[in-house]
From TrEMBL, chains A, B:
<dbReference type="InterPro" id="IPR006669">
    <property type="entry name" value="MgtE_transporter"/>
</dbReference>
<dbReference type="InterPro" id="IPR006667">
    <property type="entry name" value="SLC41_membr_dom"/>
</dbReference>
<keyword id="KW-1133">Transmembrane helix</keyword>
<protein>
    <recommendedName>
        <fullName>Magnesium transporter MgtE</fullName>
    </recommendedName>
</protein>
<comment type="subunit">
    <text>Homodimer.</text>
</comment>
<dbReference type="GO" id="GO:0046872">
    <property type="term" value="F:metal ion binding"/>
</dbReference>
<feature type="region of interest" description="Disordered">
    <location>
        <begin position="1"/>
        <end position="48"/>
    </location>
</feature>
<keyword id="KW-0812">Transmembrane</keyword>
<keyword id="KW-0460">Magnesium</keyword>
<dbReference type="InterPro" id="IPR036739">
    <property type="entry name" value="SLC41_membr_dom_sf"/>
</dbReference>
<feature type="domain" description="CBS">
    <location>
        <begin position="247"/>
        <end position="305"/>
    </location>
</feature>
<dbReference type="Pfam" id="PF01769">
    <property type="entry name" value="MgtE"/>
</dbReference>
<keyword id="KW-0129">CBS domain</keyword>
<dbReference type="GO" id="GO:0015095">
    <property type="term" value="F:magnesium ion transmembrane transporter activity"/>
</dbReference>
<feature type="transmembrane region" description="Helical">
    <location>
        <begin position="430"/>
        <end position="454"/>
    </location>
</feature>
<dbReference type="InterPro" id="IPR046342">
    <property type="entry name" value="CBS_dom_sf"/>
</dbReference>
<dbReference type="InterPro" id="IPR006668">
    <property type="entry name" value="Mg_transptr_MgtE_intracell_dom"/>
</dbReference>
Length: 492, 492
């Protein structure tokens, strides 16, 4: 049976929504909400966040012996259940897990924040964890157990079925945060010579195939990828067409040991939906899909913000001692750099005693320089991460930042110099204006060079650039201002 | 014909690569590279960046009358050609565009950085731009012309075919950075009552259908979405099964005016590959796919880093005057906040004149506080962006940050206090230690509260939090240290 064209609407046209026949049964209903939508609307606000009243209701149900927390939580999507766990205070989480045990699907577990999840898992025996892991795709199962201690990991793996266990052990053999850990091993791979019809029949006949795929990978006899084929192309071709006629030969292959940040960049650059992961011999061993990459990109981009500010992983769910140890090291490093600045000030102690206005104004010069340095540094770190700042254009970018710095410096110097000249003396105005220009230009230079040097040394530029740039701008700020004040004879 | 099972390999098993039959023709070839791969390897380094030597070769070919730049560039992927434009100095770009005019596909154009693209387009007449826009999907075409002046935009639209023009005009009617601008209008929508067989026949018969889809949307007679169906499900079901039996009713609908940041969060939270965009009446008007979202997530996450540092859009390709105007405003704001700190110092001028050690040490207290404030602020801004910090847990997060601040404060205070006591006087050590603890705790409080307050006021917390937090930590640093020095009788 060939369907009537008017029954099938394809929206190439802006007004396709009004295709005749789609309104065929004449029912011009008002927009209505399904029951599930209504239940969701009661629980989530317009920004898709759980409403405080709902969270409160759950907490009350948890303490009330007759409260049925399961009824409250049941309409939520697994991702929202995971959010609920994160928002609840730590002490309420085990009670919630008990109250909704049948809703604790693998999907909920894999959506949980790492810290919240590990915390919950600690209360579970290995066989319960193994049972959860078996429900998950390989990549999620790996994420579940990769942070466990070796002994606990072994105990969980021992409880798993051989097949799942082998898959996880193999994934764990790849480096952390690599394509090999990210990939799922379930995929559909076919030889070049089959036809569209063969492929469809094969898929219809094999009920245990994965459904999580968006492309079919075409492989040679040695199982090396030779092309990919979007499902939409397969659906649109007559049965007799060979797969090799419709596949795309050019494809992005991900070596299993490629870092996940690189994987994410490839997905972004080439707008991929899925990509093949290959082993050292070039054989297809898994696939990475765009929905997993979305998490990675968010993670990596946030990582840079947090690293730049010295906040470590910066997760509000991490244990206090982790936050403390990650942050305090940068504060101590900052203490060291601040002491360098103090030494410079101390060298000019006599000048300050004579002219206390120097002490009043010197933090301004340092602060403006620090701010300008942070701006340039953020731009450079991002450009490095996005592969936009490379050896080919480093000099051009530095020259660009110098010109921006000069413009910024002159503007800010005019303002602070003018104000200082009016309130104190014209000479002090000239001194502070010159110091500001010098410091902003220094900041621009340091803001590009420090991250670039870290990158050339194969260090993550987001990690330590901040400390160095601040040290440079603080020291230069105090030195230029106090030095010029002395050199100009102001405190002579 | 039913294919032989051994011909079709599906990799559920870790060792599936060795499935018998796949090696059937006995050819154990060594891994080899195709010609295209070789050409790429010559041009790109292992991090997928264009090699400096290649970029240099292109520049030489551009000045050499006999150089054939097209031969050099031809093996590159469109995304790499776009990278090449970005890496070349501005003055070389028009020559490259002329030299490879037949390679300047819509894909290259849509991958170009906004500034580089607008710059190139300025040299083209409206009909040439219209021709490029017509090659693109609606969302890319909209991105191409949305930043043009009204008059140029009208000129380009006037040159386009009616159909494409209507699609773009309709997209432009939605707010900037909304789902309506992001969506593509080409999709496949079908009524509930058809079968898998009907759908496949329909797609085979309609050659002009889009191929860029991963799910089929099922709609009711009023064209409102009632469910979605992954292509893999369709491929695996017998022809007689009704679509309504295999579709998933629960789906994430995106209102056309939803902000792209919210859209990206939905894709991430619910691990979507594509999602339906609906108008105010709930009718399906387009789809957003994960490959587009990958860009948005990167953009939005970077935006926060750059905004926090006051670097505006922070693109190394933006014109210098844009960088200048975006950055100088924050430097001027910073000047204002630095002056508040100066006023506080000025109030203690007499004390500093008597004890110049105060001037030497006071920047340390302010700097440590600023650093601690930035750490907490980065964590809070991220948690707000990820919907992890909500009304339900604000108080808990503040309490958490207070405890981290106390630990950090005590550690840093012990170090600086001890050193000061040894070098200067024990009393000055006590004073600076107390000031550091006070300032780090203040920083922790401000680092959470300032972003949360901006968020409650519906302002982007990444934009202005930095200025306020720095002002608070600078002022409190100087005030606590100098005030305690006076109160303790140190400067008699």
């Amino acid at each position: 049976m060939k369907p009537d064209d008017t029954d099938l609407a394809e929206m190439q046209q802006p007004d396709a929504a009004a295709i005749p026949g789609m309104d065929g049964d004449g029912s011009h209903e008002e927009p209505r909400m399904s029951e599930a939508e209504e239940a969701r609307a009661e629980r989530l606000d317009e920004d898709d966040r759980l409403k405080p009243e709902f969270v409160e209701a759950v907490r009350e149900a948890l303490v009330d012996e007759h409260g049925d927390v399961r009824d409250l939580v049941e309409p939520l999507h697994p991702a929202d259940i995971a959010d609920l766990f994160e928002i609840l205070p730590r002490e309420d989480r085990p009670a919630l897990a008990r109250g909704i045990s049948d809703l604790m699907s693998g999907e909920v577990i894999s959506e949980l924040n790492d810290y919240v999840r590990d915390d919950l898992l600690e209360s579970l025996p290995p066989d319960a964890i193994a049972e959860i892991a078996e429900q998950l795709e390989t990549d999620d199962a790996v994420a579940l157990i990769e942070d466990m201690g070796a002994r606990e990991q072994a105990a969980v793996l021992a409880e798993m079925e051989l097949e799942d266990r082998a898959a996880i052990e193999s994934a764990l053999s790849f480096p952390e945060e690599s394509a090999g850990r990210l990939m799922q091993r379930d995929l559909v791979a076919v030889p070049e010579h089959i036809t569209v019809g063969d492929l469809i029949d094969y898929m219809r006949d094999n009920g245990d195939l994965t459904t999580e795929f968006w492309e079919v990978f075409v492989v040679d006899p040695a199982h090396r990828p030779v092309g990919t084929c979007q499902l939409s192309w397969i659906l649109r071709c007559p049965r007799a067409i060979p797969i090799s006629d419709i596949m795309k030969r050019e494809q992005t292959l991900l070596p299993a040991d490629m870092d996940q940040e690189e994987v994410a960049l490839r997905f972004q650059k080439y707008a991929l939906i899925s990509a093949a992961v290959v082993d050292k011999a070039g054989r297809l061993i898994g696939q990475v899909t765009a929905d997993d990459i979305v998490h990675i990109i968010q993670e990596e981009a946030n990582e840079d913000t947090l690293l730049l500010s010295g906040a470590g992983e910066g997760d509000i769910n991490e244990p206090i001692r982790t936050s403390y140890s990650q942050r305090v090291r940068w504060l101590v490093a900052n203490l060291g750099t601040a002491l360098v600045a103090s030494l410079i000030i101390a060298a000019f102690g006599a000048a300050i005693e004579k002219l206390v206005a120097l002490a009043v104004l010197m933090p301004v010069v340092a602060s403006i320089g620090g701010n300008a340095g942070t701006q340039t540094m953020a731009v450079s770190v991002r450009a490095l991460a996005m592969n936009q700042l490379t050896r080919s254009n480093t000099r051009r970018v530095i020259w660009r930042e110098m010109r921006v710095a000069l413009l910024n410096g002159v503007t800010v110097a005019a303002l602070i110099g003018g104000a200082t000249a009016m309130i104190f003396t014209p000479m002090l105005g000239v001194v502070i204006a010159s110091a500001v220009v010098i410091n902003i230009i220094t900041a621009g230079m340091a803001g590009v060079l420090v991250p670039v040097i870290f990158d050339r040394l194969d260090q993550d530029p987001a990690v330590a650039s901040s400390v160095f740039v601040t040290m440079i701008t603080d020291s230069m700020g105090f030195f230029a201002f106090l030095g010029l004040a002395v050199a100009s004879g102001l405190v002579g």
